[in-house]
Specification:
Elements: H1 3-62, H2 65-84, H3 94-113, E1 116-119, E2 132-138, E3 148-153, E4 155-158, E5 161-164, E6 166-171
Parallel strand pairs: 2-6
Antiparallel strand pairs: 1-4, 3-6, 4-5
Length: 176
């Protein structure tokens, strides 16, 4: 074979290989593109699954917050009813008082069972704006500024979320 024949044969082979090589490169590019789309779709599906699971857990834990918030005045009224009975009438109203106490206890048990816990600050505790709502400020001798001087109503948490802040009076004494 002469040099010209070999050269012509190589040109023919290159011409035959070029479309196949181009087609092979196009298929590889398409494969890579489809793999990328597949991985993105898989990641989106996993993110959607995680988001749905988180939403389900939150709905399970906090879905009853409206009902719980609506029951808090019932709790408050039962406590007020017990506090309103004068000492001299306690014996005469023993059965009624016992019934109100049992109802209050049952309500408290049900609320606790569903994750509602009371926030019961005491006089002298430090005011915490995350858990307490200041209803008034007043200077009270013998207290420091920011101390709770009166508790108007208890607050409540639903698991770790504030359902209702405790309503308190706070000392406004200035540091001496």
């Amino acid at each position: 074979m002469s040099q010209e024949e070999i050269s012509a044969e190589q040109v023919e082979l290159e011409e035959l290989e070029t479309p196949e090589v181009d087609e092979l490169e196009a298929l590889r590019a398409e494969r890579d593109e489809l793999r990328d789309k597949f991985m993105r779709a898989l990641a989106d599906a996993e993110n959607s699954r995680k988001r749905a699971e988180r939403d389900r857990r939150e709905a399970e834990m906090y879905g009853g917050s409206r009902l719980a918030r609506d029951l808090l005045p019932v709790y408050d009224n039962l406590k007020r009813a017990l506090q309103a009975v004068p000492e001299e009438n306690r014996e005469a109203s023993a059965a009624l008082i016992e019934g109100v106490e049992l109802t209050l206890r049952e309500l408290t048990n049900v609320m606790t069972k569903h994750g509602v816990t009371p926030i019961s600050p005491a006089v002298g505790d430090t005011f915490d704006p995350q858990l307490h709502q200041a209803m008034f400020e007043a200077p009270l001798p013998g207290t420091k500024a920011g101390q709770i001087i009166q508790v108007a109503t208890e607050g409540f948490l639903l698991h770790d979320r504030l359902l209702r802040p405790a309503q308190v009076g706070v000392s406004s004494n200035t540091a001496e």
